[in-house]
Amino acid sequence: MDLEILKRKLQKIKKLGFTKTHRLGDTGIGKTLEDLLGIKENNIPLPDIGEIAELKSYRKDAKSMMTLFTLEPLPSGGDRDRILLDGFGYSKRDNQRSKELHSTLSCKRYNAQNLRLLVEKNKIRVKGKNRRLNIYWDMGSVEKKFNAKLPALIYVLADSKIINGSEYFHFNEAYLLENFNFGLFKKQVKNDGILVDFRMYYRPNGSVRNHGTGFRIKMNKLDDCFSKRTKLI
């Protein structure tokens, strides 16, 4: 598929108007778009730009953030997760978990679990309030992960509505983003345009279940990580 074919497909999809979701729940928008485009994976080879472009779709009225990629901080291993769970985790009465940590970290302030981020020259650090931590991402690994996962990005926006209990999507806006700029990425982390989510808990047997640490972005800040934007529809 080249850009012209992709644009023609997206224009046809736009003309369809509202299309009933192909899957229930939050992931329905991505599944529906993939089916309409005739692809099985959430990326598209684009020889025009010599890259594979990651495909993302988003409800225009949604307030949730887009996950760019998942990347665990250093040092690696279960001890790091246990330090976070033991020091900053919490317990709920309605499940079997002794400790869990579902926590969103930003740079500008400590969150409810007393955690925040700090951007240094070569690292993004996890800071604990009144507690010293040596948990961090090195900038080289973050840049490598972003370039591997998102050398280029196509994001498609849709209006959504409920008809007779089912969700329908109208995919009517799409952009191609190229030339990832790591300096702009770091700036977005500093300015809370990009946040980090920890998602882990102790199983009943005492082992740690980590669902992956996500770097997430506010949709209106997505363009600011790339130097080039092309409108497709």
UniProtKB/TrEMBL annotation:
InterPro entries with a match to the protein in the record: MvaI_BcnI (IPR029127), MvaI_BcnI_cat (IPR043004), MvaI_BcnI_rec (IPR043005)
Superkingdom as given in the UniProt entry: Bacteria
Record-annotated MvaI/BcnI restriction endonuclease domain positions: 9-224
Pfam families: MvaI_BcnI
Name used for this protein in its record: MvaI/BcnI restriction endonuclease domain-containing protein
